[in-house]
């Protein structure tokens, strides 16, 4: 069984190392508790920030900035979570995808001009490609 090696991405391992180091610094700076100061952290959410910043580093050559802002930028995670039930339904009923891709549903699909969610991510990708 073979897997993806990332050989086509220059500096892949260095980028991963840098983002992991950034993540550790991010957690230590904002969420490291002391004996007198408890700082709870939603680690699952912070790992999502790391993952999205890693993906954008590989795909676009820069991070989206989820860790920098310590926030769900563009409500990307929120909208993705809201659409999970629909994605699961499409996985179970593949014919539904063709139906949703029809021109009738164009107005509800994300586009690069959206300010939130996947559409905003598409817009950023389009901006980077055009540079």
UniProtKB/TrEMBL annotation:
<dbReference type="InterPro" id="IPR036396">
    <property type="entry name" value="Cyt_P450_sf"/>
</dbReference>
<dbReference type="GO" id="GO:0016705">
    <property type="term" value="F:oxidoreductase activity, acting on paired donors, with incorporation or reduction of molecular oxygen"/>
</dbReference>
<dbReference type="GO" id="GO:0004497">
    <property type="term" value="F:monooxygenase activity"/>
</dbReference>
<protein>
    <recommendedName>
        <fullName>Cytochrome P450</fullName>
    </recommendedName>
</protein>
<dbReference type="GO" id="GO:0005506">
    <property type="term" value="F:iron ion binding"/>
</dbReference>
<dbReference type="GO" id="GO:0020037">
    <property type="term" value="F:heme binding"/>
</dbReference>
């Amino acid at each position: 069984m073979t897997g993806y090696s990332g050989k086509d991405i220059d500096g892949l391992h260095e980028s991963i190392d840098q983002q992991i180091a950034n993540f550790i610094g991010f957690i230590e700076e904002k969420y490291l508790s002391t004996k007198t100061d408890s700082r709870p952290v939603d680690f699952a959410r912070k790992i999502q920030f790391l993952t999205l910043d890693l993906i954008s580093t590989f795909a676009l050559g820069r991070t989206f900035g989820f860790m920098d802002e310590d926030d769900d930028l563009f409500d990307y995670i929120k909208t993705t979570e809201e659409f999970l039930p629909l994605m699961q339904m499409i996985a179970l009923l593949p014919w539904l995808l063709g139906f949703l891709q029809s021109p009738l549903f164009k107005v509800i699909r994300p586009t690069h001009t959206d300010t939130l969610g996947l559409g905003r991510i598409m817009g950023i990708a389009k901006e980077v490609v055009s540079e």
